[in-house]
């Protein structure tokens, strides 16, 4: 058995020696604990079952658990009594605590409660208590540990615990080193160090990329000259609307170019000039000569993109010339998207507008806003004020009449990004801003699962109207069946209150109301609502079936924790309203209800003249193909993990008539860490890391191909084989989920710069991407991919990033991630490199004075050396690491 570290005997002895202090009021006691209690987490093991912990007996999913020591240290005056509670956030379900002084229980979601027992009589000044906790699964990155703990007591105001009221997660987490970096003892991943980064970067050398553009054009030819633009470009309104020209001017300001200058930019719309393979919206021809710029565009979108390519050729650090080129270009996919989750944690309107600027610059055309989830409702809906009065706020209210309970590190108060929403005016402004950049905004109101914010808001509304004696108003938009006793646990540990009941007339009425109000906002903005996103994902009980386990496990159900499965229900299984639908034969069983609801909602969408219905594909899995839906187009964001069967299942959806938008979590989820380094941010259930290079190397149309060029989450190979004939895919989308992303700065760090690689793959099909073929199998052993071409393509892209595009991100005010450099010391000489050639490097011998690194010099060093990369302005730098 793993040795326990609880010092119970000495603690009790210390407690008995507490000196007499003036009695504090309840509020004073809460304040003292909040101000003076230090909380620290030390990871002891991530391999609990291997180290003797009773993971399966404790009910741990996949029979897997970890142990963490939670240390409480009173750094202030003595505090007597135990009539208080600490609430803290843990994304891992805590299964056990080895202590007779405290108990731990889960409230809802990730919110846990640490309660003193009768044996705990108070904190002595300077006292330290160690509490061994056993949690489900593993904790491999610092951001698995959430800030935002708070303390409360009866008749007192809750207070944030100062030690955890910080985004510096490293200040209260330790132990993530050695074997604790491995998910399992057999984890074969290569962990990020100065040396492994150096080796990974070593094959990329600096080259001349003055005539290269991101995203890569269909055809580009350098003609060997230059066009001087010191007198500015003359870009007139002409084919551009006033709004489009304003967007162009805003980008020109970032680049450092005057568009009211003298160098002619002649733009003509001539769709007939394009051959069949390029005759589509967004296509253009761009010719830069030594005297002028000539643009022929298929439509106004193509004209806009031609100007973005022109700006892409300009070095913003010296915007005086443009290389002469001839470009013929057209987009690869109709749908080139970015999804932003503003529900788990809110992100400001300014951050969204800044993202739209960058999307336009790199020819991305769909902004998918994930506006609602369990943790928040983020859009004002006239007539349903409770959605934002309650559902857009998180604070400490156990009755949840004024706000939702805290989640994901948001703590007891509303003064953080756990709370917030877009007003009607905000949303209309976003729509107009997007339209000026040829970007469609796709609103997602997630249902029937991931809907706790909506359900609890409507419960607060119900209680309000019932108190006023108006039962009809109370029940008009109620979203749960009060007689439903289904025992359900969602992926994020919520119960049945996480689901909109699909069998209620009031649920349909609610959906109709919300769609109508959102459509009215689009109408007021003059921007048609062309796509409605239903959500639909994860409408299941995680305790049933294989849960989150690897479907390739020999017997996944047998590996579950010891729980009584007979007491577990599918969502809505015990709802009398839903049982009636099942008895009538409307649906086969409760498992079919989410897809049934999707079909019902598509009917409402179609009635309102919205042509496209979109959802996460698992929400539609029991429908009989795209023809089951009322809209002209039915689209799915395909998010199966490739190494868990996704290399074949994507093609089944396309074969069944759906427009498939490739959205794979192991390649284009931007909430996954950049590197396998515990200091990087993000969840990692699908992959341990996705950096810009991995995203660039993704083959979105030939999914089996990725088995030859990448590994699974444990660093092992997998196979992918073409098995289903299907229609071409409709698009590609990169996703940013926000569970660990609590600020706008963190949001931009996670999205930029890797979203530029997603833009590359959405716009341009590379030569190294093979055609998808049924019967062709890829693996680490196959040699079907032209890896030399992939390497050369990446080298070009990485150089453009390092030499031009990162500087533009900085000038745009984007808090992007600068790459951590690679480094090694050989024979006393420091060698450094970086993922994006052209990014400057620095080193320090004392951690204070920074010296510029020159690769030709290889400076002599001794002892530990600190290294970092720096931005073009010198005002920003990467995370600092040490080289030994």
Characterization of this structure:
Helices cover 24% and strands 20% of the residues. It contains 20 helices and 36 strands. An 8-stranded parallel β-barrel has the order 19-20-23-24-25-26-27-29, surrounded by 5 helices. A 6-stranded mixed beta sheet has the order 13-18-16-17-15-14, covered by helices on one side. The protein has a 5-stranded mixed beta sheet with strand order 5-9-2-1-12. A hairpin with a 2-residue loop joins strand 31 (822-826) and strand 32 (829-833). The longest helix has 25 residues, at 787-811.
Brief sketch in words of this structure:
The chain has 884 residues and is α/β, with parallel strands linked by helices.
From the N-terminal CA to the C-terminal CA, the straight-line distance is 36 Å
Please tell me the overall pLDDT: 95
Structural class: alpha/beta
Number of helices: 20
| Unreliable stretches covering 5 or more consecutive residues | 1-21
Features:
884 residues, alpha/beta, eight-stranded parallel beta barrel, six-stranded mixed sheet, 20 helices, 36 strands, 20% strand, globular
Write the layout of secondary structure elements.
Layout: H1 8-16, H2 26-36, E1 37-45, E2 65-74, E3 79-80, E4 85-89, E5 94-97, E6 102-108, E7 111-116, E8 122-123, E9 128-136, E10 150-152, E11 159-160, E12 173-174, H3 194-201, E13 219-228, E14 233-234, H4 242-255, E15 263-269, E16 284-288, E17 293-297, H5 300-312, E18 321-329, E19 335-341, H6 349-361, E20 366-370, E21 372-373, E22 376-377, H7 386-389, H8 424-435, E23 440-447, H9 452-467, H10 471-475, H11 505-525, E24 531-535, H12 576-583, H13 593-607, E25 612-616, E26 633-638, H14 646-655, E27 659-662, H15 665-668, H16 692-696, H17 706-709, E28 720-721, E29 731-736, H18 744-751, H19 755-763, E30 777-778, H20 787-811, E31 822-826, E32 829-833, E33 840-844, E34 851-852, E35 865-870, E36 881-883
Parallel strand pairs: 1-12, 14-15, 15-17, 19-20, 19-29, 20-23, 23-24, 24-25, 25-26, 26-27, 27-29
Antiparallel strand pairs: 1-2, 2-9, 3-8, 4-7, 4-10, 5-9, 6-7, 10-11, 13-18, 16-17, 16-18, 21-22, 28-30, 31-32, 33-34, 33-35, 35-36
